[in-house]
Structures are given as structure tokens and as C-alpha cells.
Design goal:
Blueprint (H helix, E strand, L loop, with lengths): L6 E5 L6 H16 L7 E5 L5 H10 L5 E4 L16 H6 L4 E4 L2 H7 L3 H13 L3 E6 L3 H5 L3 H13 L4 H4 L3 E4 L13 H18 L2 H6 L1 E5 L7 H5 L6 E4 L6 H8 L5
Parallel strand pairs: 1-2, 1-8, 2-3, 3-4, 4-5, 5-6, 6-7, 7-8
Helix pairs in contact: 1-2, 1-12, 5-7, 7-9
The structure holds 1,3-dihydroxyacetonephosphate.
Length: 258
């Protein structure tokens, strides 16, 4: 049985400017320094404009905190106004990039095809994608959350080879639970995260599926994280609102201490 190191990643969305980012990462580093937290990987996904400041801090102080971007262009360079490329992110030593967050799908028309191209772009430049999938309320009410989410997974991974996929992170984020305070029950999270692992085993191999980290996201807080993490197929969380509060985020990272 493979042991998967939990990954707690804070998706800051469009919050915190570069000065606030520095203060926030310093707080996290300070709060996490008194104990050896190798058992949990910690990452932040700040807005693009903060990345250079975060990199300087993490590099300069040799912090264990990892960081990444919230999006990546499918293209490596060229006339794509406003876009940020894989080479730019890898130059900033980003470990991760979120791909296909539901807010990108909803407000920026990102299809599975676009997400697939972005997953490939991330791998071209040595960045680990956090591929976000998850159903909306209508789909959940119709009881089709598993098939809907698996079809997003299939689309996002189309043509991506096993040697890349074994390092991917999948974030299951039911849209109805994002920023609503409505958290999926641990059983709801396990149902879909388990199905995602099952599909990875079908598409690739059981061995690969056992290596992939699957996160839950949607109204995660210090008070509900332990029950979610107790599920066998949940290997971490993608945290929005609660990640903006350094103390609360640290409590989530230390879910085992509760
Ligand atoms: O979208 C999310 C993380 O990517 C979840 O956001 P909240 O934690 O604010 O519900």
C-alpha cells in the first residue's frame, strides 16, 4: 500500500496583494516552524503578481512551503494578451498550478479540452497540475456527481501519459460547496474521490492510482478537516476562504493534532 503525503494547498483566488502575500507566508512559516511538519506538504497558490515576492521569500529563507499559480496558458509564448506561460511559471520555480478550477470553467469558459491543453502545458515545463473537477448543484441533485466528475477527469487527462499522471494532483471540488459554507459530508467526498481513484486505475493502473493525491475542496475549515481527512481516498484539501487566515490555515495543516 502506497503512503501518500497529504497536500494542503491554499488557493487565495483574487485576494492578497504582494505585500500581504509576504506577510502571510511569513506568518505561515513562523507558525509551522516549531514542529516538524514533513508529514504534510503545504502549498499556497497566490495571484500571479505575488509569485515573485513569494519565491524570493521561500528561496531566501529556505522555507518548506511550496507555491504555485492559479492558472497557466495552454501556449508557451506569443500573442496571447494577459496570459501567463509555463516557462514564466517554471522560471519562478512554481511547484504547482491549478488547472480547470470551477471559477475558471464558469467565468472564463474553460472546457475539458482547454484544461487538457493546460495540463500538458504544465507538464512540458515541469510543473505539477492540480486538476480541479466537480459537479454543480443540479448535477448533484440528479445524483450524477460521479459520472459528471469522471467525465471531466477523462477530458482533462486525454493523451497524458502515465509517467506524467503519476505525479498529478486531482482536486474534487463540488461547486455547490465552494464558498457557500456548505461542506460535502465525509461520505460525499469519499464517494467521488474513491471513484476518481478507481477511474485512474482503469485508465492507467492500480499502482499509478495508488500514488495520485486526491484533494477535497469546498468550505474546508479547521473544524471539518479531520473528518474529511479520515476518508481513505482523500489525501489533502484545496482551501479557499479559510486559507486567507494564516492561523486557520495552520490549524487545517495540523489536522492530526486535533
Ligand atoms: O474553491 C475552493 C478552493 O479552490 C474552495 O473555496 P472555499 O474553501 O472558500 O469554499
Amino acid at each position: 500500500m502506497t503512503t501518500r503525503t497529504p497536500l494542503m494547498a491554499g488557493n487565495w483566488k483574487m485576494n492578497l496583494n504582494h505585500l500581504e502575500a509576504i506577510a502571510h507566508v511569513q506568518k505561515l512559516a513562523f507558525a509551522l516552524a516549531d514542529k516538524d511538519y514533513d508529514a504534510v506538504e503545504v502549498a499556497v497558490l497566490p495571484p500571479f503578481v505575488d509569485l515573485r515576492s513569494v519565491q524570493t521569500l521561500v528561496d531566501g529563507d529556505k522555507l518548506k512551503i511550496k507555491y504555485g499559480a492559479q492558472d497557466i496558458s495552454a501556449h508557451d509564448s506569443g500573442a496571447y494578451t494577459g496570459e501567463i506561460s509555463g516557462p514564466m511559471l517554471s522560471k519562478l520555480k512554481c511547484t504547482f498550478v491549478a488547472v480547470g478550477h470551477s471559477e475558471r470553467r464558469q467565468y472564463h469558459g474553460e472546457t475539458d479540452e482547454i484544461c487538457n491543453a493546460k495540463v500538458k502545458a504544465a507538464y512540458r515545463h515541469g510543473i505539477t497540475p492540480i486538476l480541479c473537477v466537480g459537479e454543480g448543484l443540479d448535477v448533484r441533485k440528479a445524483g450524477e456527481q460521479v459520472s459528471y466528475t469522471l467525465s471531466q477527469l477523462d477530458g482533462g487527462l486525454e493523451g497524458v501519459p502515465a509517467e506524467q499522471v503519476e505525479s498529478i494532483v486531482i482536486a474534487y471540488e463540488p461547486v455547490w460547496a465552494i464558498g457557500t459554507g456548505e461542506v460535502a459530508t465525509p461520505d460525499d467526498a469519499q464517494e467521488v474521490c474513491g471513484a476518481i481513484r478507481g477511474r485512474l486505475a482503469e485508465l492507467y493502473s492500480q499502482e499509478l492510482a495508488d500514488k495520485v493525491r486526491i484533494q477535497y475542496g469546498g468550505s474546508v475549515k479547521s473544524g471539518n478537516i479531520a473528518a474529511i481527512m479520515a476518508q481513505p481516498d482523500v489525501d489533502g484539501a484545496l482551501i479557499g476562504g479559510a486559507a486567507l487566515d494564516a492561523e486557520e490555515f495552520v490549524k487545517i495543516v495540523r489536522f492530526r493534532d486535533q
